[in-house]
Write a structure and sequence with these properties.
binds FE2/S2 (inorganic) cluster, 7 helices, alpha+beta, 2 domains, Arc Repressor Mutant, subunit A
C-alpha cells in the first residue's frame, strides 16, 4: 500500500488533476526510491492511484530504462555501450568490470552491492568511456582505476 508520504510526493508532481497519469514516470521513480525496485504490486498500486490501468503503467515501466522491474543491488552501474564509448574501449571496460565484480551483464553481485546493466549514450561522448553509478556520472573511466572508483559505493 502506498504510504501517505509516497502519495504526498507523487501529488507534488500532479499539476492537473484531470491528467494524473502525466505524473506516472515520477511516481514510479518515487516508489522505486522507497522500495528499491518496482514489483507487480507497486505497479497495481501506482496505477490505481493515478487512474491508469496496470497494463498502461507497466508499459511505461518496462520502456523507461531507469525503472527496475526486478530486484537490483544497492548500487546500479550503467555502462555506456553506445558508439563513442565502444570506440574508446567499452569492450575492455565492460569485461574488466564484470570480471572484477564476478557477475555477468544484468546480474547482481552475491553481496547485493552492485548490479551492472548496459546503457545507451550517457551524453558525455567527448569523455568516453563513461558509466553511471546510481546518479553519479563518471567520465574518462580508466580500467586500472576501477577498484578505486567503486570503493565509495558500499
Ligand atoms: S557514447 Fe558513451 S557517453 Fe555518448
Amino acid at each position: 500500500m502506498l504510504t501517505e508520504d509516497i502519495k504526498k510526493e507523487i501529488d507534488s508532481h500532479i499539476h492537473e488533476p484531470q491528467h494524473r497519469a502525466a505524473a506516472c514516470t515520477e511516481a514510479l521513480r518515487i516508489v522505486q526510491r522507497h522500495r528499491g525496485w518496482i514489483d507487480d504490486e507497486s505497479i497495481r498500486e501506482v496505477a490505481a492511484y493515478l487512474g491508469m490501468s496496470s497494463h498502461e503503467l507497466d508499459s511505461v515501466a518496462t520502456f523507461f530504462n531507469l525503472i527496475h522491474r526486478r530486484p537490483v543491488g544497492r548500487h546500479v552501474i550503467r555502462i555506456c555501450a553506445s558508439v563513442s564509448c565502444w570506440v574508446m574501449g567499452y569492450d575492455a571496460l565492460r569485461d574488466g568490470l564484470l570480471k572484477h565484480l564476478g557477475v555477468g551483464m544484468g546480474q547482481t553481485t552475491p553481496d547485493g552491492r552492485f548490479t551492472v546493466v548496459p546503457n545507451q549514450c550517457l551524453g558525455c561522448c567527448d569523455h568516453a568511456p563513461a558509466l553511471m553509478i546510481d546518479r553519479d556520472l563518471h567520465r574518462d573511466v580508466n580500467l586500472a582505476a576501477l577498484k578505486e572508483l567503486l570503493e565509495p559505493y558500499r
